[in-house]
Design brief:
Elements (H helix, E strand, L loop, with lengths): L3 H8 L5 H15 L6 H8 L13 H13 L11 H18 L3 H5 L7 H16 L4 H25 L4 H14 L6 H11 L9 H17 L1
Helix pairs in contact: 2-4, 5-7, 5-8, 5-11, 7-8, 8-11, 9-10
């Protein structure tokens, strides 16, 4: 969150829709989406709550704008690149962006109408699949498989909320101390995997699952 000095400095900058949305994102990142109210947002910006309505219609307008700004940060696939490499790049970019804003995946799935950034992203994914040689039917399946992995994995990770790798190691150690390993040997083995040092080249579980999907799509394409 911004310090008092930073808020005082920002107060001298003319208020705009972009400033309102950026402040809303910072507030949600720091304190959770449930902390976002018009009054709290106005306090962060150093203005009266009614002043916000010169730049946004209401809270729903702010939420829509926040989702749009987050999705606009995704690295879109290049139309000239290899379909598989481009989709992998974009999926990892989307996952990393959503991970920086833990509230965004859930909010983007809340039934709000798709904005321009969302439409641009979806169209780019669909176009990459079609140019890559997939039929319209297979493109439909592939798109949903990719989106389910990106959103589903992010929501699972946010829901687990296990903290940093150090926090996870402490939780795993404490769990192992209470687990009857003789009764649940495979669970004990699984938890031990969370305690082993990770090699620098290991990309993690999201990339592993993503590659399974992309490899499967590549086989179906031929």
């Amino acid at each position: 969150m911004a310090s008092r000095a930073e808020r005082a400095s920002d107060a001298r900058v003319p208020l705009s829709r972009d400033r309102v949305l950026e402040a809303a994102i910072e507030l949600a990142d720091a304190a959770g989406i449930e902390s976002l109210t018009m009054r709290r947002l106005a306090q962060e910006l150093g203005v009266e709550a009614m002043t916000l309505y010169y730049h946004v219609a209401n809270k729903d307008d702010i939420l829509d704008g926040m989702v749009e700004r987050v999705i606009s940060q995704y690295e879109l696939p290049s139309p000239d690149g290899d379909w598989k490499a481009e989709l992998r790049k974009t999926a990892i970019s989307a996952y990393e962006v959503l991970s920086r804003h833990p509230w965004a995946a859930s909010l983007s799935l809340s039934g709000r109408g798709p904005g321009t950034a969302r439409l641009r992203y979806s169209d780019a994914i669909l176009g990459t699949l079609r140019r890559g040689g997939f039929s319209a039917d297979m493109t439909d399946h592939a798109y949903h498989a990719l989106e389910s992995h990106i959103m589903g994995f992010t929501l699972w990770e946010v829901g687990m909320n296990l903290g940093s790798p150090e926090d996870l190691a402490r939780l795993a150690t404490a769990f192992m101390a209470q687990l009857p390993a003789d009764e649940f040997p495979y669970m004990a083995e699984h938890v031990q995997q969370h305690l082993r040092p990770r090699r620098p080249e290991e990309e993690g579980e999201f990339a592993f699952g993503l590659d399974l999907i992309l490899d499967g799509l590549e086989r179906l394409r031929h």
